[in-house]
Design goal:
The chain is α+β, with helices and mostly antiparallel strands. It has helices spanning 32-35, 56-66, and strands spanning 8-16, 22-30. It has a two-stranded antiparallel ribbon with strand order 1-2. A hairpin with a 5-residue loop joins strand 1 (8-16) and strand 2. The longest helix has 11 residues, at 56-66. The chain starts with 7 loop residues before the first strand and ends with a helix.
Length: 67
């Protein structure tokens, strides 16, 4: 993994959802400066939405191909 241990923070939480069933979720955080050597940072153009979302049929076709 390209990160040192101090660059990553993660946490797991669980509890009952609105329907009473238990749910779990993860929270993973990585320091922004640790992402820069990988070319991932908020200043790059692709870090922001640059256009409209693809149409629904595109998502459906991608899900069919994934199976």
């Amino acid at each position: 993994m390209p990160f040192v241990e101090s660059d990553i923070y993660w946490n797991h939480a669980c509890g009952p959802g609105p329907d009473g069933r238990w749910r779990g979720w993860y929270d993973v955080r990585i320091r922004a400066d640790a992402l820069r050597p990988l070319g991932l940072h908020p200043d790059q153009p692709t870090a922001k939405v640059s256009g409209p979302s693809p149409p629904r049929w595109w998502h459906a076709a991608a899900e069919r191909r994934a199976r």
